[in-house]
Specification:
35% helix, 9 helices, binds fe (ii) ion, six-stranded parallel sheet, single chain, TIM Barrel, alpha/beta, 9 strands, three-stranded parallel sheet
């Protein structure tokens, strides 16, 4: 796999965005995503332009900040499906969530009150950026015990993984799968986030791609354009 990705100059080509977007804040009024139906449809339109056919709607679920219930998310997905149909946009939408790794999430897992997707029953979850939460291993263990596959959101973003590559292997051994934000591949040479995205990709640790789009802005429009700038060299 390595030799297929490394160009003669020692740099890599980024992966193309997949037709499946595993992480997107497309539902209106549930979190820090779109404020209304019009802006939600703008996201849908951009995804279709990019070649995405299926999107997992993953609003934040945080006990204090975004206490979204499963029923509220399912209702919002049903409304969004109607909107997409009325707009003639060929985009399939699946219900999911981006769960914050906290004690309240553990209770929801125990109650099987979580939204999962795919045959693997992926459950997308996120961690604080600086350091892993105390409950991280409990979250992973509980998800696995309950028959789900833990999928870490935007894996390249966490400083504790950028600083400690062994921690990535440890999570992998625990059964964690890795979602990467596609825009991270377009970050400049100096970006640690971009560096980790590329490393995960070439090591075969990129399980699913997502846009993590919150609104239809210009940064996503370049995703399907040819990758013109040079990528950073891979860390040894
Ligand atoms: Fe997100």
């Amino acid at each position: 796999m390595f030799s297929l990705l490394i160009r003669r100059d020692g740099l890599i080509d980024p992966p193309a965005m997949s037709e499946f977007d595993a992480h997107c804040h497309i539902l209106p009024r549930l979190d820090d995503g779109p404020a209304d139906e019009r802006t939600a449809l703008a996201i849908a339109r951009l995804l279709v332009e990019m070649g995405v056919r299926t999107v997992v709607a993953t609003p934040h679920v945080m006990i204090d900040t975004y206490p979204n219930t499963t029923d509220a998310i399912l209702a919002a997905v049903r409304s969004m499906r109607r909107l997409l149909k009325d707009s003639g946009l060929p985009l399939e939408i699946i219900a999911g969530a981006e769960y914050y790794a906290e004690r309240g999430f553990l209770a929801r897992i125990e109650a099987h009150d979580v939204l999962c997707f795919g045959e693997e029953r992926f459950v997308l979850f996120e961690s604080p950026v600086e350091r892993p939460p105390m409950v991280l291993e409990d979250v992973v263990f509980s998800l696995k015990t309950a028959g789900y596959t833990p999928l870490l959101a935007h894996t390249e973003r966490y400083r504790f993984l950028q600083d400690d590559k062994d921690a990535i292997l440890s999570l992998r051994r625990l059964g964690v799968r890795f979602q990467i934000n596609h825009p991270s591949f377009l970050l400049p040479r100096t970006s640690r986030r971009g560096e980790l995205a590329r490393l995960l990709y070439v090591k075969g640790f990129m399980d699913l791609l997502g846009t993590d789009m919150h609104r239809a802005t210009a940064e996503y429009r370049v995703q399907t354009a040819p990758f013109l700038s040079r990528n950073p060299r891979l860390p040894s």
